[in-house]
Structures are given as structure tokens and as C-alpha cells.
Amino acid sequence: MATDSCEEAIAGLKNLLSDKGHLEGVAAAKIKQLTAELEAAAAKPFDAVERMKKGFTHFKKEKFAKNSVLYGELAKGQSPKFLVFACSDSRVCPSHILDFQPGEAFMVRNIANMVPPYDQTKYSGIGAAIEYAVLHLKVENILVIGHSCCGGIKGLMSIPDDGTTTSDFIENWVKICLPAKAKVKAECSSLDFAEQCTNCEKEAVNVSLGNLLTYPFVREGVLKKTLSIKGGHYDFVKGSFETWNLDFGLSPC
Length: 253
Description:
By secondary structure, this protein is an alpha/beta fold. It has 11 helices and 5 strands. The chain has helices at 2-19, 25-43, 48-64, 68-74, 94-97, 124-136, 151-158, 170-174, 178-187, 193-212, 216-223, and strands spanning 82-87, 105-110, 141-147, 228-235, 240-244. Strands 2-1-3-4-5 form a 5-stranded mixed sheet. Helix 5 (94-97) links the parallel strand 1 and strand 2. Helix 1 (2-19) runs antiparallel to helix 2 and helix 9 (178-187) crosses helix 10. It starts with a helix and ends in a 9-residue tail after the last strand. The model has no long low-confidence stretch (mean pLDDT 91).
């Protein structure tokens, strides 16, 4: 994708040079220089280490150095207001979408942004993150964010009815939200597969919100109103974001 963008930019600059022959010499020379730089960059193989170095240099100069007070406070500890569950998809980073600043959100990212039910052995990594965020960091909000064109949800919707799997981990993981698939198949059978997947992206979030309440410390926080749980969906095709609450009708035991 990056190579295509460079090639398009190079072609555009070359067209500009040919179409705008009246441009002053300085401007034309600058465009030629930029064209040469783009061509050189396009010809270079991707260097992962160099990309990380440049990224950190930019961060250090533009963020860290310019926000010394913030980073000084963060060096003492963190007190985020949010625990966010988001997909591992590279297109849906919550910090970019919601403009979270360092220290604002404790993040858990996995395939299809799923929250499994409470299980001290099977899903202990997720449980540890929830426990730490709720009991130690005292977050006030848990947000589960689904998103458009989710490959994990497409995989869930594609699992055969007999439950057979072809992957080592992915399908067994997304089966966490099989109830969402069942609901969509039952209620949206007239829709095409892509539309069913879109509906399932949101229904899977609702399943995860329900699963959060199987964690005793989450349920207690919701009952005491010290903790709020919300669902969200980011559509990066339309550039939209929506959130919702679910009324679970909870009452103290």
C-alpha cells in the first residue's frame, strides 16, 4: 500500500511538471527534488528497525519533550479512567480513534475485541487484566469496542454448524461469541453475509458486556455504581463511532 502511494505521488508530481511548464525555476526544481526523493524511498526495502527509530525520535521530540509535566506525573504512577477492550486489527488503535492520552486508558487488545467469561485457568490472561484494572487501578469505565470489516467476526460467522475448526487458535477463541452468531443467524437470515457480519460485530460486543458481569468484582462495581460498562463500534469505512449501554436489570443478591 505504501509503495502504491509513493508511485501515485511520483506520477502526480511528474504530471504537474509537464502540465505546468510555466512554473518558476525554483518551484520546478523543488518538485524535481521531491520526485527524486520519493523515487529513492520507493526503491528502498522496508527497514523495520529504522522505522521504529524514526518513530521514537518523533515521539521523543514532539510528545515526550513537549509534555514534561504529563510524563513526570506518569513516572509516579497511573490512574486511568478507562479499561478498553479493542481488536488487534492495525486499523483500529483506540488511542488514535478516541484521542486517549498516555495514562487515560488501560488497554487489552485481542482478536475481535472479545471478553471471555470468568475462568481462572482458561482465560487467566484476560482475567488478570480485568482484575488489575478494576481492583487496583480503580477504573470507572469499561469500554468494549467492535469495528467494521472485522476479520475475527467474519471467521466466527464462517465456522460450520458442526463446529469443526481448521486453525490452531483463532476459531476456538472467537467461539467465545457464538451466541452472537446464533442471534444474527436467527434474526438476520434475509441479509447478505457482509451485512450479517456487521450486525455480529455489534452483537459480539453485547456478548462481551454480558461476560464482563461474570467477573465478581465487575458485577460488584456495576451494582455499587462505581463502574460503568459500555459497548462501542467504530466504522472506519464511514468514519463513525457509536456507543451504547445495556440494561442488565441487576439487583443485589
